[in-house]
Amino acid sequence: MRLLLVEDDVMVASGIKLGLTNAGYAVDWVGSGERAEEVLRTEVFDAAIIDIGLPNMDGLELTKRLRRPDMANSAMPVLILTARDALQDRVQGLDLGADDYMVKPYELPELLARLRALLRRSQAATSAVLAFGPIELDTANRRATARKDTGEAVPIELGPREWTVMEYLLINAPKPASKEKLLQALTGWDKEITPNAVEVYISRLRGKLEPYGVALRSIRGFGYRLELRGQEQQ
């Protein structure tokens, strides 16, 4: 999942970005509302974390502008993370289009839990566990398992980027996930990943899923789709 962090305090932004990156997210950071608005017009993110106390254009105005129809991310979940704890600020932030509001100082486990909840709602998922056939992905505990015919749950070891690809495949299943979307989810501005890298992670996942009767089919010119063995779509 790719996140945009909008925070003008370098120390605070570094701490938040580190925590989110360690949790498996691709995080891009900007220090102003103006820069965030520019980026959000052209690039796609899964969610944004916005501080209110930004210079010039504050986070409330940015949130309001983000919801305009001409923005590429107008429906993207927004979490306001700020030191302002007045009721009026919370109400205004939510009324302007924020999906959630957290007051600093924050605890990282709660921030991650709120992000997962926002992302589930945006993807129309009602549970923290994503499943396809025998495969289950527990997004809260970051645990992947495959259920055998006996009912036994066998752990599947996934690297951070394998996890990201698997998460998108499960969110989209049984529909295909586009290669472009997978590439965006894997990389931020400070990382360089070629389109061919997606194929590397797809190949690794194939090897881990095939023993449990799950195939990963390439859709030419688009992306990839999870299918149960023996039920492959033509």
From TrEMBL:
SUPFAM superfamilies annotated for this entry? C-terminal effector domain of the bipartite response regulators (SSF46894), CheY-like (SSF52172)
Keyword set, alphabetical order: DNA-binding, Phosphoprotein, Transcription, Transcription regulation
Q: Which residues bind DNA?
A: 127-228
Transmembrane regions listed in the UniProt entry = none
A biological-process GO annotation: regulation of DNA-templated transcription
User: Which Gene Ontology cellular-component terms appear in the entry?
Assistant: cytosol; protein-DNA complex
Stored InterPro entries:
CheY-like_superfamily, OmpR/PhoB-type_DNA-bd, Sig_transdc_resp-reg_C-effctor, Sig_transdc_resp-reg_receiver, WalR-like, WH-like_DNA-bd_sf
Query: Under the GO molecular function aspect, what terms does this record hold?
Result: phosphorelay response regulator activity; transcription cis-regulatory region binding
Q: What is this protein called?
A: Response regulator transcription factor
UniProt source species: Ramlibacter albus
